[in-house]
């Protein structure tokens, strides 16, 4: 219950400790243990790709999880989002269900680089899984499909139609991510960046269990 309250509602340790009638250190230890166990149950990329191979296609997108950092922490600053955070990559199916969320990387890492570092592009390509992604993944290649580049007025009618269709399909993964970020702990992470991957994986485990 402590871990669920912390992850779902984002309550700080002191507040949870007072509510459960225990010490703050004890609350921290219990939550850390639970998060570790839950994170270990989250699906791996290999498991997600196996599940994806049964779908018509999957959707890939990156999201920035805001963190509490000062301006000097440049590796964590995302020029795209104009804020500090951690970059996580998300795979979702056509029914807006998340299949996998990657380990967290510093916010300065671009989406296409993050996808390569995690081995997402290679894994999907080797499995022959079609993947839809936005312009941030230009150059990913493999089975990753991205919109045509260029100003709207310079695109042909056919290219414009493809991009419009692409946008509608990609809206599915954005909806999946929005639901995932309903877990309040992800709205502003105030912990060490070394703990964020574990928190994200724990939330994913609970999120998938609650939406099954």
UniProtKB/TrEMBL annotation:
One of its GO terms (molecular function) is metal ion binding. Keywords: Metal-binding. Residues 60-207 form the DDE Tnp4 domain. The keyword Hydrolase does not apply. Residues 1-41 form the Transposase Helix-turn-helix domain. Its cofactor is a divalent metal cation. This is Transposase. It comes from Streptomyces alboflavus.
